Amino acid sequence: MRQERGESSHLEVERELLRLCKEGGQRFYEPIVRTYERPGLRIAVGMLGSIDEAQDAVQDAFVKAWQSLHRFDLGQPFGPWFFRILRNQCQDMIRSRRSRNRIEARDRNFDIPPTGATTDPEHIRMRSEVQELFWKALSVIGDEHREILILKEIEDLPYAVIANILEIPEGTVASRLFHARGALRSALSEMNFEYP
C-alpha cells in the first residue's frame, strides 16, 4: 500500500510539473528529463547498440516531446508516451543507417545497474562478461525482438505499459516476448552460452 501511495504521489507531482510545462514553464521540464533520461538511455542503447547514438536519440526525443507537449493528455502517465517518441526516434535512426546490415554494440562499457551491489572482484568480472554476451546477442537479433527484450528484461516494464509503447494488444506482448527470448536463446547458444 505504501508503494502505491508513493507511486500515486510521484504521478501527481509529475502531472503538476507537466501542467506547468504546458503553460510555458520550461524550467519545470528538467525534473521530467532527469526522471526519464536514464531508462530512456538504456532503451535507446538496446535498440541502437551505441551510447553516442543513444544519447542523440534521447536528446532528440526529449525535444520532440517538449514540442508536442501541447498534445499530451495530462490524465495519462508521461513515461509510456515519451518512450513511444523515443522508440520512433530510434527506429528513424535505424532506418537512416540501413545500409549497414548489422547493428554492432560498439560500446560495451554501458553498464546495467546491478540490483544488488557487490564488491567481490570475481562476481563483478562474471557480471561484466555476462553483460557483454547479452549486449552482443542483442546486437544480432531482429529489431522487434531487441526492443521488447529491452523494455521487459532491462526496464522491467509491465505488459500493459509495453503494449502502450509499442501500440500493440497486451496479449501480443507476451507472444512477442516469447519469440524474442527464443531468438536471444539461439543467439547466446551460438556463442556457447546457455540462456536460462
Automatic annotation (TrEMBL):
The keyword Plastid does not apply. It holds the Pfam family Sigma70_r4_2. GO terms for molecular function: DNA binding; sigma factor activity. GO terms for biological process: DNA-templated transcription initiation. InterPro entries: RNA_pol_sigma-70-like (IPR039425), RNA_pol_sigma-70_dom (IPR014284), RNA_pol_sigma70_r2 (IPR007627), RNA_pol_sigma70_r4_t2 (IPR013249), RNA_pol_sigma_r2 (IPR013325), RNA_pol_sigma_r3/r4-like (IPR013324), WH-like_DNA-bd_sf (IPR036388). Residues 33-99 form the RNA polymerase sigma-70 region domain. Residues 144-184 form the RNA polymerase sigma factor 70 region 4 type domain. Coiled coil: none annotated. Keywords: DNA-binding, Sigma factor, Transcription, Transcription regulation. CDD domains: Sigma70_r4. Belongs to the sigma-70 factor family. ECF subfamily. This is RNA polymerase sigma factor. It comes from marine metagenome.
